């Protein structure tokens, strides 16, 4: 199993994001609401809802909050929620890919454009970053849940389920798949009786761009602005997180 790869930077950034529990809960509540709206409130017959609830449990989302989100999914309010993507460039040519969920697209696109403009960036057209990112399924599995497994045997099982990359660190096992095999890995983990703490579709950069610390901090500023927006679900970028930059993130 790999201990470090080209995706390690994404994990470090995600760890910094995960400190923002309120934001994560808001994102997952929307995921649960939309999944319940689109596929019904029954977890057994709605795999998207089952995964969203699983993510909620992994983030310690209270049970009653999960139940309210499922109930909300069958109401009129949920009908207005739609998912959108936005692509553009931040300072110093760093590519930024956004996933948004909103009940008012005019508000969302105005906020996105404003954040880009006010932070030396520019909003592009959808598809303009298709050569920068690739869509991957990302599964995060806590080490304690696989402690009984022989690591080599488990890796072979995961490869059989479509794993392209498997990373092991002190806390988690992270599995990356192609977008097409995202569902196959869900089935494989269920077959192996392994429950991830999160399952996500992410935009993984094909190459990262290294900047000097002061320039990188300018990029992090615009990323933080996007993450603070309630309509933005996820932010992806191709900034290389150097050890110096990671240390600064962990200090914040």
Quaternary assembly: single chain
Number of strands: 8
By CATH reckoning, the class of the largest domain would read: Alpha Beta
What structural category do the secondary elements indicate?
Answer: alpha+beta
**Mean pLDDT across all residues, rounded?**
87
* Largest sheet descriptor: 4 strands, antiparallel
Count of alpha and pi helical runs: 9
How would you spell out the order of helices and strands?
HHHHEEHEEHEEHEHEH
Q: Helix proportion of residues, in percent?
A: 40-55%
Second-tier CATH architecture of the largest domain: 2-Layer Sandwich
Shape: globular
Cα Rg: 18 Å
Arrangement of strands in the largest sheet? 3-1-2-8
What characteristics describe this protein?
252 residues; Alpha-Beta Plaits; 3 domains; four-stranded antiparallel beta sheet; globular; disordered N terminus
Topology:
Blueprint: H1 8-17, H2 21-39, H3 47-58, H4 63-73, E1 82-89, E2 95-102, H5 105-118, E3 122-123, E4 133-142, H6 151-160, E5 163-168, E6 172-178, H7 182-191, E7 198-205, H8 213-228, E8 232-237, H9 243-251
Antiparallel strand pairs: 1-2, 1-3, 2-8, 4-6, 4-7, 5-6
Helix pairs in contact: 2-3, 2-4
């Amino acid at each position: 199993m790999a201990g470090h790869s080209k995706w390690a930077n994404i994990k470090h950034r995600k760890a910094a994001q995960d400190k923002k529990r309120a934001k994560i809960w808001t994102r997952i509540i929307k995921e649960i609401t939309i999944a319940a709206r689109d596929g019904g409130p029954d977890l057994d017959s709605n795999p998207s809802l089952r995964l969203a609830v699983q993510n909620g449990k992994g983030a310690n989302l209270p049970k009653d909050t999960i139940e309210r989100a499922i109930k909300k999914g069958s109401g009129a309010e949920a009908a207005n929620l739609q998912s959108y993507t936005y692509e553009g460039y931040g300072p110093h040519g760093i590519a930024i890919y956004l996933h948004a969920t909103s009940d008012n697209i005019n508000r969302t696109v105005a906020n996105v454009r404003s954040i880009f403009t006010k932070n030396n960036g520019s909003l592009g057209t959808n598809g303009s970053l298709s050569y920068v990112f690739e869509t991957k399924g990302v599964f995060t599995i806590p080490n304690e849940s696989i402690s009984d497994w022989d690591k080599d045997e488990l890796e072979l099982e995961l490869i059989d389920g479509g794993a392209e990359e498997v990373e092991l660190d002190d806390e988690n096992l992270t599995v990356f798949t192609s977008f097409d095999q995202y569902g196959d890995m869900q089935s494989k983990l269920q077959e192996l009786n392994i429950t991830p703490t999160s399952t996500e579709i992410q935009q993984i950069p094909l190459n990262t761009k290294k900047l000097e610390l002061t320039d990188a901090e300018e990029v992090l500023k615009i990323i933080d602005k996007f993450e603070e927006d309630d309509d933005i679900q996820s932010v992806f970028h191709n900034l290389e997180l150097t050890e110096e930059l990671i240390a600064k993130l962990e200090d914040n």
